[in-house]
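Entry:
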Amino acid sequence: MLAKRIIPCLDVKNGTTVKGVHFVDFRDAGDPVELGKQYSDQGADELVYLDITASHEGRKTFLDVVRRVAATISIPFTVGGGINELSDVDKLLNAGADKVSINSSAIRNPQLIEDIARNFGSQVCVVAIDAKPAGGSEQKAVETWVCYLNGGRIPTGKNLFDWAKEAENRGAGEILFTSMAHDGVKTGYANEALSILSEALNIPIIASGGAGEKEHFRDAFVFGKADAALAASVFHFGEIKINELKHYLHNEGISVRL
């Protein structure tokens, strides 16, 4: 059995790590390079960095962050935000990133998934999906999850499960699924939706949105059948230590790298 991965996520705005709730109300969480080094030292398996202000000037700032991260840590890291064409991918990989994450651009131009996979390999292409149930209730509307664009601002009408399968068929190497309804509220991951995704797809699923306790990570792996669990604020603000989390998961019978 492949080891389950623990992945801290760092949203970067103007060179600083920030964290919000339900994709809004951001607060400062520290220097992204220093935080990345801490997480690497604590035993994180991978990192995800998202440029949430990926304007032209923001991208220049962010490329510098990527270079500094690559020079500082020894674990793989994924970079996302504002990636619209192959030249963006090329710049980020040359700056030291191991993978790229595409979200809105993939929905607008699904061919981009195929282009990245063909030019750089499927292992480089992570398709991130932000979604929530159309009816507002996860239990009643698990089949009606709708995907959103632009950091959760614009509903697309696309069904989560259909889009994830299409992304896989086009060459995505992983799916990073964020439940918008669970983001930042620390009540657990969207395990029912995760389980459906995991059963339907043959590529790894990264769970995102909802981590508040160690048990939530366990449940994402046991009930959600996720391959990796991503979290932000519980790590940024010291509520959960990665090494302690991994020992907890190991004791719960979950395969992790210690």
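Residues 189 and 217 are 8 Å apart (CA to CA).
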